[in-house]
Amino acid sequence: LRASSSESRGALIVLEGLDRSGKTSQSSRLLSYLEGLGHSTELWRFPDRSTSVGQMISAYLSNKSHLDDRTIHLLFSANRWEKRVTVEVSLYKNFDYQKFQDSNELFSRSDGFTQISLMETQLKNGITLIIDRYSYSGVAFSSAKGLDIEWCKAPEVGLLAPDIVLYLDIPPEKAAERGGYGGERYEQLEFQRKVAKCYQAQCDSSWKVIDACQPIEDIEKQLQDAVLDHVTDVCQPIEDID
Ligand code: T5A
Ligand code: NA
């Protein structure tokens, strides 16, 4: 377990749930709410389909490519690691190196490249991150295929642990009734039932479970209440998933 500075920082807020549980709708509402309160906030999502790893994931999800279960699992994890860990300073011509020199985020490697912890830098700069899906999706969807859950968790160790996980709880049958279902690889009722069980296996006291069948505005309000304590004067150290 790794802990860093205990100064006030941004919060790491994760939204999880089955496909069509309302994560994307609620993430953007939460973003507006926190910005309205004057908190610097960014919305991230996984998979991040904009990277080259993300494009491989996207092709897989839309059935344009076929990958072994373990291979795609590791790609989803790599897609989080590439946002967790670093940008290599030397690759960025216009990079504001000076700005980062005092920030403790730099560590030099023996090959001479300097790396910056992107996610950690944002949090330490006081930016709250709302993340639409994270490690728990990775573990739930892959273990639902029958992969060993401990094997699935292993590549997630060392990613930053969220301050709170907001789980949008919806019966798979209800989610299937919502618009647009059926386009991507995992959007099948029988599979989503297994995913729901694999989410339950990961749920602990850091999770806030919210009934996702309520009207959108009611869920929105409950999410606001749930995060409020977590965004004001966050002083506990940033920890890693262990
Ligand atoms: N995956 C992902 C892995 O296998 N491993 C991993 O590591 C990761 C990160 C990614 C897929 O990849 C898998 C999981 C997924 O299968 P995605 O791009 O994240 O997929 O897509 P989804 O999360 O499935 O996004 P969806 O768009 O399906 O669902 P959301 O974001 O949960 O739902 P949202 O907000 O888009 O809403 C869906 C519909 O429901 C309505 C909305 O208007 C919309 O039509 N709705 C409601 N209707 C009634 N009442 C409410 N309260 C409603 N809230 C929303
Ligand atoms: Na979504």
UniProtKB/TrEMBL annotation:
Positions of the Thymidylate kinase-like domain: 15-91, 114-222
Gene Ontology biological process terms in this record: dTDP biosynthetic process; dTTP biosynthetic process; dUDP biosynthetic process
Pathway assigned in UniProt: Pyrimidine metabolism; dTTP biosynthesis
Domain of life: Eukaryota
A GO term for molecular function: dTMP kinase activity
Keyword Oxidoreductase attributed: no
Keywords noted in UniProt: ATP-binding, Kinase, Nucleotide biosynthesis, Nucleotide-binding, Transferase
Record has Nucleotide-binding as a keyword: yes
EC number(s) from the headed UniProt entry: 2.7.4.9
GO cellular component: cytosol; mitochondrion; nucleus
Family: Belongs to the thymidylate kinase family.
Protein's name according to its UniProt entry: dTMP kinase
Origin species: Salix dunnii
UniProt lineage: Eukaryota, Viridiplantae, Streptophyta, Embryophyta, Tracheophyta
